[in-house]
Specification:
The structure is a single chain. With 289 residues, this protein is an alpha/beta fold. It has one domain (3-288). It has helices spanning 9-18, 31-34, 62-65, 76-86, 93-110, 136-146, 158-164, 181-189, 204-215, 278-284, and strands at 26-27, 40-43, 115-118, 132-134, 153-155, 170-176, 192-197, 219-224, 236-239, 242-248, 263-267. A 9-stranded mixed sheet has the order 1-2-3-6-7-8-11-10-9, with helices on one face. Strands 4-5 form a two-stranded antiparallel sheet. Helix 1 (9-18) packs across helix 5 (93-110). The longest helix has 18 residues, at 93-110.
Length: 289
């Protein structure tokens, strides 16, 4: 195999340093994305401050109700260790994003140049704010291995690199609680589809940000406490000064296919790792007031 086809030495060193292969950063099968009628990948890191650094700076109610703690408890230990190992992001964000780029392109190529990519499965990192450096070695590797052209240079973020490479089948989307007009504009510039996550009636800052999001073309996503698995979502819900059509967000995870002005309804799922009071649930869900 020609040297140009081999991973750059700096990537190999990073993989060994953090005991994390770059091609195993993304999760390709998981209840959240298995329903998607489209090839999908999601990045799961340790949420909030579990990793020792806060990966969810706007977390309030959600830090205790996070889907990180869902699923069969028999698999929690292995799952949590894997996410902890992947959370070396803050130790070397430059190399992490390069490894993430390789993983995304690998999955994209394996799926006939199609991929729905979500980088915040159990975190809320503002990926728009982290630059991506592509040197000559990485550029040549991506071209010779995947026949895709990523010109060497410094990109504002990984999404800008996707755009410059002309990846028409790459659909990037995310849920977030980090919102402002500048971030909304930047996300639209690089085709990153955002949904704003409602965090509860006792989180006044989040309620204000929910209104800002809806007024600027970003849909709302919220948990419903009183809609069971076999029950349909309401057709609409009144929220502040908005009357929002409701989309069933449990049918799939492809938020970029939903209208910009709507409420994505998600049925509340109890964490399996510990008990949660009804008061906590009522504060968190949108249909309790």
């Amino acid at each position: 195999m020609r040297s140009a086809h081999l991973k750059p030495l700096s990537i190999v060193k990073t993989e060994k340093q953090f005991d994390q292969p770059s091609l195993k950063l993304l999760t390709l099968t998981q209840p959240k994305i298995d329903k998607n009628p489209f090839p999908s990948a999601i990045l799961h890191l340790s949420p909030h401050n579990i990793s020792g650094r806060n990966l969810c700076i706007k977390a309030y109610n959600c830090k205790k109700l996070c889907l990180h703690f869902s699923g069969n408890k028999l698999y929690h230990d292995a799952k949590f260790k894997a996410r902890q190992r992947k959370s070396y992001f803050f130790n070397n964000s430059d190399k992490f994003i390069q490894c993430l780029l390789i993983n995304a392109i690998h999955v994209y190529s394996k799926n006939d140049n199609q991929l729905a990519l979500r980088l915040n499965g159990t975190s809320d990192i503002d990926w728009l704010s982290y630059k991506l450096k592509i040197d000559n070695a990485l550029s040549q590797f991506l071209f010779h291995r995947y026949n895709l052209t990523f010109n060497a240079g410094i990109y504002s973020n990984i999404f800008e690199a996707f755009l410059h490479a002309g990846l028409k089948g790459m659909h990037c989307y995310d849920y977030t609680k980090i919102i402002n007009k500048d971030r909304i504009a930047r996300s639209k510039d690089v085709a990153l589809d955002l949904s704003f996550s409602f965090d509860g009636w006792n989180n006044s800052s989040n309620i204000q940000d929910s209104n800002l999001a809806l007024n600027n073309g970003v849909r709302l996503a919220a948990c419903f406490a009183h809609i069971k698995k076999n029950q349909p979502m309401p057709k609409a819900i009144r929220f502040l000064n908005h009357y929002l059509p409701v989309v069933d967000g449990d049918k799939d995870d492809l938020r970029y296919t939903n209208p910009n002005y709507c409420c994505v309804g998600l049925r509340f799922k109890r964490p399996q790792a510990f008990k949660v009071s009804q008061e906590y649930i009522d504060n968190f869900c949108i249909d309790t007031i």
